[in-house]
């Protein structure tokens, strides 16, 4: 008997379609337990998308948690330091505190993780897979890319301490340029000290339009390598139908304690929040004493509930 | 909301305006920036107004709800006070400081009040997160008393030691024999945008920010 897609609800169909896509690209399913020791999350609180974890004590007296995140578990359990790239995908439920509803929610996400000798080619492959995932869901999508090392270097030209750095990064994610200027004036920096950072944040749009300007800003601030990486990543899409859906924007930020290099988010028209989020997380690997490099992304299925069954799903 | 189209066949730019004087002032700024919708000036009880010619749809909402409409994508853009953005931290872009609706978030206490740092400070406020962050930065232990209105009477009745609230002219404080002790942060109206809506309606949003004298692009 053949599998009848009609009996599945929207979330199930999307989940299976994405799994099929990742399987076709040589990714292997990774299954995990619903529970993890709470300690893993208490040590990496800032990595979690929401505050709050559901905990319980197991039969052995250990404090356990219902998984609020998938990546941390994969990093913890997958072997480290091999010569081969490990290409994994997952389809899991996570339990997060929803700021909007003031309670915990079960959320389903499908995603991929690459661990091992991640190079520019791997980054391009993962980005292409993220783009294909969005294309599968809708014709009206935007994949937004930034480079956290470049952003971080320009933030460091003005930030005098960690607190100021954090505030400036938050403003960067909000496109709050007046806020950044305000923080710099408060800190006693001269008028215009933040000009290069503001220029970078103002430079958003299709790669073909904005890359020349980004290269110039990077060159003037000694960050050519990051701009080159960003350019090479975007180059994988040039001249393809996907190019018009690509958007470079340095407001796509992440916590720099965990993320570095290329970061990206996916948006669909009519859905208010990003439906896909990912990037390189070598910094997290180092924090967890891993030698490998890593990149991955997640598609948040619960945010796709409003995607129309008829119009969506290419 | 049904998907109606503007004159050029594109989507409307959905704008959440805060009801009241501030919203009326904001509308005048938006109209001058090329987003006119004369129907909004008619005296009626309607809450939603659209103009297919300029491609804009306005709706009046409670000022403290503007950020929710924008964060949830019911509005592409809106105008909200910095106090609301600091208190609720909605995941939106804050594109411009419009420089109107200026006031400040302040700590006020009864005239002559002497703080005793050895005691937990009782703080009455509508803005629990702002108050908590402010005193956490000073390492001060506080007890938040969350109120929804008439905050000024809390110290008079002995419910709290101080209040954290918005101060515009200071008249209400003076009439209740309170005085400002510290300014926490200056407040003004901010242009905010939904992160997804910003990308799919980029041309309209940039036309608006340029018309408002924005330097963001």
Task: Briefly summarize what is shown.
The complex is a heterodimer of chains A (314) and B (217). Chain A is α+β, with helices and mostly antiparallel strands and 314 residues long. Chain A contains 11 helices and 11 strands.
Structure description:
The complex is a heterodimer of chains A (314) and B (217). Chain A has helices at 10-24, 38-42, 71-77, 120-137, 148-156, 162-173, 177-186, 195-202, 207-220, 224-235, 282-287, and strands at 28-29, 35-37, 55-57, 63-66, 86-98, 103-116, 141-147, 246-248, 260-268, 276-280, 293-300. In chain A, strands 1-5-6-11-10-9-7-8 form an eight-stranded mixed sheet, with helices on both faces. A three-stranded antiparallel sheet of chain A has the order 2-4-3. The radius of gyration of chain A is 20 Å and the shape is globular. Helices cover 37% and strands 23% of the residues of chain A. Chain A is of the alpha+beta class. The relative contact order of chain A is 0.17. In chain A, α6 runs antiparallel to α7. Chain B contains eight helices and eleven strands. Chain B has helices at residues 21-32, 66-71, 82-88, 128-138, 153-156, 171-175, 195-200, 202-211, and strands at residues 13-18, 48-51, 56-61, 77-81, 93-97, 103-110, 121-125, 142-146, 162-167, 178-187, 189-193. A six-stranded mixed sheet of chain B has the order 2-3-1-4-11-5. In chain B, strands 8-7-9-6-10 form a five-stranded mixed sheet. In chain B, β7 (121-125), α4 (128-138) and β8 (142-146) form a beta-alpha-beta unit. Chain B is elongated, with a radius of gyration of 20 Å. The A-B interface holds A 100, 140, 142, 144, 171, 174-179, 202, 247, 251, 267-274 and B 71-73, 91-97, 193-200, 215-217.
């Amino acid at each position: 008997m053949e599998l009848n897609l009609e009996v599945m609800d929207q979330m199930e169909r999307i989940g299976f379609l994405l799994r099929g896509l990742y399987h076709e690209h040589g990714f292997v399913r990774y299954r995990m337990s619903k529970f993890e020791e709470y300690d893993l999350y208490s040590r990496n609180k800032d990595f979690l998308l929401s505050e709050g974890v559901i905990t319980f004590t197991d039969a052995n007296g250990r404090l356990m948690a219902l998984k609020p995140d998938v990546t941390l578990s994969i990093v913890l359990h997958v072997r480290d330091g091999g010569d081969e790239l490990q290409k994994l995908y997952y389809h899991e439920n996570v339990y997060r505190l929803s700021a909007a509803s003031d309670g915990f929610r079960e959320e389903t996400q499908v995603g991929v993780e690459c661990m091992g000798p991640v190079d520019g080619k791997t980054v391009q492959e993962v980005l292409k897979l993220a783009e294909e995932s969005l294309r599968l869901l809708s014709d009206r999508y935007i994949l937004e890319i930034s480079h956290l090392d470049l952003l971080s270097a320009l933030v460091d030209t003005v930030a005098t301490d960690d607190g100021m750095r954090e505030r400036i990064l938050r403003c960067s994610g909000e496109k709050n340029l007046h806020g950044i200027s305000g923080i710099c004036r408060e800190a006693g920096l001269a008028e215009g000290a933040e000009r290069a950072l503001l220029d970078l944040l103002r430079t958003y749009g299709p790669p073909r339009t904005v890359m020349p300007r980004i290269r110039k800003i990077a060159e003037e601030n000694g960050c050519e390598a990051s701009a080159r990486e960003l350019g090479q990543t975007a180059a994988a899409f040039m001249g393809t139908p996907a190019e018009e859906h690509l958007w470079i924007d340095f407001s796509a930020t992440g916590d720099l304690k965990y993320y570095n290099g290329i970061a990206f988010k996916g948006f669909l028209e009519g859905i208010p929040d990003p439906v896909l989020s990912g990037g390189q997380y070598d910094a997290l690997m180092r924090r967890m004493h891993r030698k490998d490099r890593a990149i991955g992304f997640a598609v948040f299925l619960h945010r796709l509930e409003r995607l129309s069954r008829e119009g969506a799903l290419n | 909301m049904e998907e109606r189209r503007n004159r050029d066949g594109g989507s409307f730019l959905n704008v959440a305006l805060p009801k009241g004087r501030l919203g009326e002032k904001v509308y005048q700024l938006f109209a001058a920036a090329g987003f006119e919708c004369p129907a909004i000036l008619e005296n009626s009880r309607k809450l939603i107004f659209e103009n297919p010619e300029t491609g804009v749809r306005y709706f009046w909402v409670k000022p403290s709800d503007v950020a929710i409409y924008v964060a949830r994508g019911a509005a592409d853009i809106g105008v909200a006070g910095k106090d609301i953005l600091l208190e609720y931290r909605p995941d939106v872009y804050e594109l411009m400081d419009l420089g109107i609706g200026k006031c400040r978030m302040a700590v006020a206490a009864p005239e002559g009040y002497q703080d005793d740092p050895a005691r937990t400070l009782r703080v009455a406020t509508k803005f629990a997160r702002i108050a908590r962050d402010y005193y956490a930065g000073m390492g001060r232990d506080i007890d938040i008393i969350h109120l929804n209105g008439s905050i000024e009477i809390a110290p008079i009745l002995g419910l709290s030691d101080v209040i954290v609230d918005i101060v515009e002219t200071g008249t209400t404080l003076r009439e209740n024999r309170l005085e400002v002790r510290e300014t926490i942060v200056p407040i003004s109206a901010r242009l905010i945008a939904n992160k997804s809506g910003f990308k799919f309606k980029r041309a309209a949003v940039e036309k608006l920010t340029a018309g408002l004298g924005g330097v963001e692009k």
